[in-house]
TrEMBL record:
It comes from the Bacteria. It comes from Vagococcus entomophilus. It holds the Pfam family DevR. One of its GO terms (biological process) is defense response to virus. Keywords: Antiviral defense. This is Type I-B CRISPR-associated protein Cas7/Cst2/DevR. CRISPR (clustered regularly interspaced short palindromic repeat) is an adaptive immune system that provides protection against mobile genetic elements (viruses, transposable elements and conjugative plasmids). CRISPR clusters contain spacers, sequences complementary to antecedent mobile elements, and target invading nucleic acids. CRISPR clusters are transcribed and processed into CRISPR RNA (crRNA).
Length: 290
C-alpha cells in the first residue's frame, strides 16, 4: 500500500477545559510559557485522545492490572487486538510480559496538545458550597479555580497506510474496514466535545485545513495562527508547496473570524461540514484505489 498521510490543523473555542494538579485550594489549569513570559493554557493530547475514544462509539479495549503493590501496571489485555478494537488500531499499545520484551505497536494517529491562541491573564473563579452549607447552617468551603476562555489549536496526523495493519500480531484488515474506521474517527473529530466540571465544552472545528498527502508531515501545525481574531492567510500559503496545493481542503465557520472572506478567497475554504465530506471522500478513494 502506498505511503499516505492525513493531516489537519483545527481551531476551536473552549473554556477552562483541562486542569492539572491543584495548588492548595486553587485548581490550576494546565499551562505552558514562551520565552517572553506569556502563558498559554492547553488541553493535553491524552485528554483529547480520551474524548475521542469515549465518543467514537466503538468497543473499548479490555484492560488488566498486572503485578502487585506499587509495581502494579494497568495495560491492555494480552489477547486484545486491532481486529476488534479501534483504539489499539489508532493509538497503538504496549503489552509487557515477564521474561520477554513484550509487544509494542506505535500510534498511527497522533495528536498534538490543543494550545490556546490567546494568552492566560490570571483570571480565577471564586467557588463555595454555600447552597449546601446553608441547609445545615454550617460554614461554607471556599475554593478558587483558574479560568480561561480562548481559541485553541491542535493537529491530527494519521499514517493511512498503517491503519488496519499490525505486523506484530500478523493482522491486516480489508480496505473497506480501514476506510470505515478512518471515516468514523473524522466524524468524531467533527463533533468532538469535552465534559468537565459540570460543563460540556464544544471542541467542534471553527476553522480546519488539511488533506491526504504523499508526506506524513503535520504541514499546518506551525503556520496556523490567530491574531486579534484574524487567521494570517499569507503565513499558511507560505507553507503550501506545489505538491500540497491542489490536495489541500479548508473549512471555516462564516462570521467567526474577521477575515473569513479572505480565507474563502485565498484558501478556497468551504464550510466545515463540506470539508469533512470531501476529506472522507479522499480517504475512501485512497483505500479503494490500492
Amino acid at each position: 500500500m502506498k505511503n499516505k498521510g492525513l493531516t489537519m490543523t483545527i481551531i476551536f473555542q473552549a473554556e477552562s477545559a483541562n486542569y492539572g494538579e491543584s495548588l492548595g485550594n486553587v485548581a490550576s489549569l494546565k499551562k505552558i510559557s514562551r520565552n517572553n513570559g506569556d502563558q498559554y493554557t492547553y488541553i493535553s493530547r491524552q485528554a483529547l485522545r480520551y474524548n475521542l475514544i469515549e465518543q467514537l462509539g466503538e468497543k473499548e479495549a479490555p484492560v488488566v492490572a498486572e503485578g502487585s503493590g506499587d509495581k502494579k501496571v494497568i495495560q491492555f489485555q494480552a489477547d486484545a487486538s486491532i481486529q476488534d478494537f479501534l483504539e489499539l488500531d489508532f493509538f497503538g499499545y504496549l503489552k509487557t510480559e515477564k521474561g520477554t520484551g513484550g509487544k509494542k505497536r506505535s500510534a498511527k494517529v497522533r495528536l498534538s496538545n490543543a494550545i490556546s491562541l490567546e494568552t492566560y491573564k490570571g483570571d480565577t473563579d471564586f467557588l463555595t458550597n454555600k447552597g449546601l452549607a446553608d441547609r445545615l447552617k454550617e460554614n461554607m468551603n471556599i475554593a478558587q479555580a483558574e479560568i480561561h476562555r480562548s481559541y485553541y489549536k491542535y493537529t491530527v496526523t494519521m499514517d493511512l497506510d498503517q491503519i488496519g495493519l499490525d505486523e506484530v500480531d500478523g493482522i491486516e484488515l480489508p480496505a473497506a474496514e480501514k476506510a470505515r474506521r478512518v471515516s468514523a474517527l473524522l466524524d468524531t473529530i467533527s463533533f468532538l466535545y469535552r465534559d468537565i466540571r459540570g460543563r460540556r465544552e464544544d471542541l467542534k472545528p471553527l476553522f480546519v485545513i488539511g488533506g491526504v498527502y504523499d508526506r506524513k508531515n503535520p504541514i499546518f501545525e506551525n503556520v496556523v495562527d490567530l491574531k486579534e481574531q484574524v487567521i494570517p492567510v499569507a503565513k499558511i500559503k507560505g507553507a503550501l508547496y506545489d505538491e500540497f496545493e491542489h490536495k489541500t481542503l479548508c473549512g471555516v465557520v462564516e462570521e467567526e473570524f474577521k477575515n473569513d472572506i479572505e480565507i474563502k478567497n485565498e484558501l478556497h475554504a468551504t464550510n466545515v461540514p463540506e470539508f469533512f465530506k470531501e476529506l472522507k471522500k479522499s480517504v475512501v478513494e485512497y483505500y479503494e484505489g490500492d
